[in-house]
Amino acid sequence: MRLLPRLSMPYLPFALCALPPLPYVPYHHCLMCLTRLALCALLALPYVPYLAFFALSALPRPFALCVLPRLCFICLTPPFHTLYLALAFSLRFYAVMNSVINRSRIMKPKVTLVDDIVRARLHAAPHTGHRDEKRLGLHLLTVVDFARERIFPVAQALPLRPAPSVWGERNTIFGNANDLVHGMVPTLLSPSESATTSSSNPPSKSSASTGRFAREAASAPPTPNVICALDASPSPTEPSDALALRLRQINCIYPASTWSAYLDAANLSEKYPYLVSGFRFGFIFDFPSISVTQTPPNKFSTPELATEFTKIVRSELQKDRYIGPFSRASLESHLGPFQTSPFSLIPKAGKPGKFRAIQNFSFPPVVSPAFPNPSINSFTSAVNFPCTWGSFAVASFLLGNLPPGSRIATRDVAEAFRSVPLHPSQYPAAVVRVGEDEFCVDTCGAFGARPSGGVYGHIQDAAVDIFRSQGIGPITKWVDDHIFAQVPVASLVSYNTFRASVRTFFASNGPHHAGGRLWYGAGSFSDASLRESDDDYRFPLLDLSNNSPRSANDSLFAYNMEDVDDLSRHLGIPWESSKDVPFSSAALYIGLLWDLSTSSVSLSPKKTEKYLAAIAEWSKRSTHSLDDVQQLYGKLLHASLVIPEGRAYLTGLETMLGSYGDSVLSSRHPPRSICGELDWWSASLRNSLLSRPIPLPKELVDIQAFSDASSGVGIAIVIGQHWRAWRLIPGWRTLNGSRDIGWAEAVGFELLIYAIAGSDESRRSFKLFGDNKGVVEGWWNNRSRNSAVNSVFRRIHTFLAASDRRESFFSAYVSTKLNPADAPSRGLYPSSAFLLAPIPIPTPLAGLIIDFDAPRTAKELQLGRFPPPLNTPSTPSRFSRLLQHTVNPSPSCPRPYPKDLTPRVSILRPHCHARDRLRRWLPSSTRLNSSSSGAVSDEDLERILQVIGARWETSTKELYGSGLLIYHVWCDTRGIEDPQRCPADNVLILNFISSCAGAYSGSSLRNIYFAVRAWHILHGRPWKINSDEIEAALEGASKLAPPQSRRPKRKPFTPTILSQIHEHFDMTSSLDVAVFACLTTIFWSAARVGEFTLPNLKAFNPTKHVKVSDVSHSTDRQGNPVTRFRLPHTKCSPTGEDVFWAAQSGVTNPESAFQTHITLNKPLPHEFLFSWNNTANQRRPLTRTKFLERVNKAVTAAGLEPLQGHGLRIGAVLEYLLRGVPFDVVHVIGRWSSDAFILYLRRHAVIIARYIQDTPYHQDFIRYTMPPVR
Fold first, then answer.
1. Which neighbouring-strand residues pair with 484?
2. Chain mean position to CA 1076
3. How many helices (H) and strands (E) would you count in the chain?
4. 95 pLDDT higher than 80
5. Same domain, 50 and 104
6. Of 24-38, 190-204, 223-237, 566-580, minimum mean pLDDT range
7. Same domain, 914 and 1037
8. Parallel, antiparallel, or unpaired for β 701-709 and 766-770?
């Protein structure tokens, strides 16, 4: 206590304000220390006024606010207890910072004071004492390092962890530790302190840091390249001096200031906030504090391995990554107690005489008297050090979406983990035993330490992001293995457009954190929707082809390897040049061969040979250890990335993996099934076609295909409204439970695949529904733990491989109550009019299932079972013909239903396009099953539906399909069954209209009503509705419509607007010329936009859409020229109509615009009239979407309000009327069959003005309305 006057006054406030919250200590547990507490409080009283003044005036505002809560944190009433602790902290802090004072004298009272607190806690709660002791130790370190950083800027600060999202307090001290002893802190040196230890026999090698992997010549004096050191001093030659220097100065190959500049420039500093601190001060790996020295021996089975280990140690010493050697006593004097992890060496695959050093940080596996300390890895977790991994899914999405002509190359980082500097606090747990009483301190990350992969991966995450920020990419990585992709300069714009299109998706879906992995994306392979990436796509690729001289071939691509090398030199990334694979169309990555030319991924021949050799080696032994099983399972699991069906042939190994329990060192006999599985693998690996297409997200066709099984009756499948069922023969269930209801559900799934595969020739990918999660999710993984179900999966895989239909069927779960196959599986069969054709029963299923309508078997007769009757006996229709209408009425996959308009799943209402609902959604009874004559065949019914359905145009069917959806969703919510929905009675329709009133506009509700009416008419159901009542209800609903449902009147285009936007069209651009010609043609002919554009690129039909050959020119008797366009098919006239325009003055002249289009784009006679060439010189018809997109872009550029396409037709009506063209002439120009065009009128007064003057200008009006004078 006599040393208190020598404490510098500023130290104590900083220590107190940095004091972390301490564990709660109940009041009565501290009574034993009351005397000492009171004494120390009295000694501390002189500091209280100064502290209060300092807290209120000198401290920064955040610190001033946090002082009092921290001082009063512990429950012992006043801040005296905290001051007592602060006193201990200050003594410790002062001892570390002021080396001139006798360290032993000042540390002794410090230990006594701290031990008082610790012993009180141990006495109060022995089972938590060591945890609290560790927390207190962490607080001491935190206070010391904080004060050193704030008061001595040149000193090291406590480095923060690499991943802020996973940083937190953890108990990392042994449960059997002795009283707190920190060997590290007393030996920390201040920046001004120099090492004084010398040796009379200096070693022949230097242990000082050089900062380089290559050692300088022995004759040259060692010159350190301490990039991250704060105070570079001459290199010491004694291990003790080298260690003392390394405790102050971290040696790191990565230039922290350079990385900081790049991260700041790319706005990545927030993403990697602690990376640069790690470079400067070392990374914390969560290694525990060591209280008892433990040095297990290394494990070398042969003298050759021991010699090789000696070479490794010598190399590490030369590269300044090891410091030493030390004796145990000497090292304990520097670090305190320490722990080593045993070394072992394993041969490197394919490299004779080369070995990989592995440090077993997981030793000992269990605590024993010989080794009382738990393993180092038991205190660490990869979860706390996450990074991205370029997995198979990530590589598939990246490489599969590259533009044609791209190339890939691979590179490895040299000695990746060894480039990661450790924080000095980690050294006691990273010591290496190199001899009987010789030890080296390892100052870098080691292979075998659980956090090494994550910490290094975090560094490389930042490096890859820096590459991306400089326009280099795409890139992905697996630890130190990197794959670089080159994009052709010609495809750079389109590929950046693709990257921009997925940027929003990945930004809103990530980063995710699971285990030690970070990634972006969503979806899964199970439904072909997986989009996964280690890149958030924030940076576009840049054209760097002109950055430096390069070959003609390299100049075709956005960057080359020299650009990578140049940036790598700045960042200090050491590539292993001997492993570089130059750019080409194919490369090996994660053990797989990725071929961009064929868009495929395959198992490399080297891996294939290795895996076959492993199988052969396995077969030589009758028993196997857990390590044997893990090795073989890992190899074949890797091969299943290319052979997905192989997962179904790994179940034996998976069973064996779980059989060892705690007997991890024992050997066991494999299950009998493994022999057959390995035979299958041997045969598959010898197949020369070990490849698959690179898996990418794909659209699944939803044909409403369901399967289900009932243990009491049988199995059923439903496709749309078609179905088939089978009965389960008594005795199908096995006693051991392997063949149970799950097996029956799997058989239903199998039969559903056979039905679709036998009828679909397009080889599309389908979504199939089932209500058994074991089967559905088992198919996601391509295997099942249930042996009987797994046998079914194997049979399906064999069938799909033989028919080249791999990855064509994806399972999805549906609840039983929404599964339309549930009823027929229980014997409630629908009408046989929709019965699927018979499906051959596989041989393994013979004697287990039988067709639902087959005669009763002997077992069924014996048990008194009778097959359920059909609702309506009839001859089954041919599936192949009906599937054409049921499965694929439209070429594209329908969009999902809106969340608030999802109907209940029903066999009568398959998921289809809105335009197909009128035909495909069936009432519970139709013409077929209501005809009394019985003479209506399938062909007759189809013909009737086609003829009646031709009454409505496709656009009308689309509108009615939406209305029909609303009607059935309303019926679902009201619990109205199908027989009541159709035929609907008057009250039901009135109820429906009344329920919708106020939610829809009057016109929308009227369209919905007509949709339900058309549905009844098409399917031959009576429509007995009181039209007067319905009309009154519709008019009332129109008046109750919400204001927001009434769309504002469309604003018309005018010649003035056309003139203004003309300035923003490039009349040398193929697209712009086609758009402006189409725009003026639509306007001056008062046509509809859809009459001169296509709904999509593939919609052109020469019998329905206008062509160059449909254009002609005419003149009247007065010589007035007009241009005529023959529209082969219109909304109101299936036989076609004519539209006209005449030449106009100014830039809106349709004639000049049209001639410019014909001259520049040169459409062929039988090609769509407004066709154009894209940037790749590919011919494109002008679609409605592209037309409106370009027009609106020009409107916006002109500073005008957005306009709708129908505003062209409205504007034409207005312009002609304002010119004085009589109403009936405008009526003819616009081809109206009624006076509906009057709704389009704007500025009525201006139009009517000429006809209501005192002396009206009505000559034209009279000419058209009065008979000629004779």
1. 409, 475
2. 41
3. 43, 30
4. no
5. yes
6. 190-204
7. yes
8. parallel
Whole-angstrom distance, CA of residue 181 vs CA of residue 193:
23
Residue 1218 belongs to some domain of the structure: yes
Q: What is the DSSP string of 557-617?
A: BS--HHHHHHHHHHHT--B-GGG-EEEESEEEETTEEEETTTTEEEE-HHHHHHHHHHHHH
Rounded Cα gap, residues 948 and 1014, in angstroms: 10
- Which token pair is 776? 């559905």
Q: What pLDDT sits at residue 70?
A: 34
**pLDDT at position 231 over 70:** no
Residue span of the structural domain in which 137 resides: 4-155
Which pLDDT tens digit goes with each residue over 649-666? 999 999 999 888 877 778
Look up residue 1198 and give its two tokens: 């002109």
Please identify which residue in the block is written with the tokens 């409630």: 828
What predicted TM-score, i.e. pTM, was given to this entire model? 0.60
pLDDT of 132 > 60? The answer is no
Tell me, yes or no, whether 617 and 685 share the same domain: yes
Residue tagged 């576009």 (tokens): 540
How many angstroms separate the CA atoms of 1154 and 845, rounded? Answer: 69
Q: Checking DSSP bridges between strand 481-486 and strand 475-478, what pairing results, if any?
A: antiparallel
Phi-psi region of 590 (alpha: psi -120 to 50; beta: other; left: phi over 0): left
Q: Are residues 734 and 707 in the same domain?
A: yes
Task: Specify the length of the chain in residues.
Answer: 1270
Rounded Cα distance, 802 and 176, in Å: 63
Report if residue 67 sits inside a domain. yes
Q: 479 near 505, Cβ under 8 Å?
A: no
Boundary residue ending a domain (693, 717, 739): 693
Of 186-195, 489-498, 1220-1229, least confident by mean pLDDT is 186-195
Tokens representing 1099 are 């919609």
In this structure, the answer to whether residues 898 and 808 fall within a common structural domain is no
Domain for residue 329, yes or no?
yes
Q: How far apart are CA 1123 and CA 1111, in angstroms?
A: 7
* Count of structural domains, the chain: 7
| Separation between Cα atoms, residue 88 and residue 98, nearest integer Å | 15
CATH number of the domain bearing residue 491: 3.30.70
* pLDDT range class, residue 474, cuts 50, 70, 90: very high
Q: What is the CATH number of the domain that holds 865?
A: 3.30.420.10
Q: What is the mean pLDDT of the chain?
A: 77
Provide the 10 A C-beta neighbour count for residue 1129: 16
pLDDT at 1255: 55
pLDDT digit string (tens) for 1101-1150? 888 899 998 999 888 888 889 999 999 988 778 788 899 899 999 999 99
Domain check: are 349 and 426 in the same one? yes
**Are 147 and 93 spatial neighbours (Cβ–Cβ below 8 Å)?**
yes
Nearest to 382 by CA among 517, 533, 552, 550: 517
More confidently predicted of 463 and 1201: 463
* Residue 593 domain flag: yes
Yes or no: say if 1059 and 1211 are a contact pair by the CB < 8 Å rule.
no
Between 952 and 1250, whose confidence is greater?
A: 952
Token couple for 530: 């997986």
User: What DSSP element (H or E) covers 624?
Assistant: strand 624-625
Q: Which helix (H) or strand (E) holds 726?
A: strand 722-728
- Alpha carbon of 1246 to those of 846, 1094, 1210, 1262: distances in Å? 85, 36, 16, 19
- Do 276 and 304 belong together in one domain? yes
Residue 707 class from Cβ within 10 Å (0-12 exposed, 13-18 middle, 19+ buried)? buried
Q: Which stretch of DSSP H or E encloses residue 532?
A: strand 531-533
**Are 281 and 156 within 8 A, CB to CB?**
yes
Q: Are 1106 and 1126 in contact (CB under 8 A)?
A: yes
1024 and 1037 together in one domain: yes
- The CA-atom distances, in angstroms, between 241 and each of 102, 215, 781, 1018, 1248 are 20, 19, 58, 96, 104
The sheet carrying 322-326 orders its strands as 322-326, 438-442, 431-435
Please state the rounded mean pLDDT for residues 640-646.
93
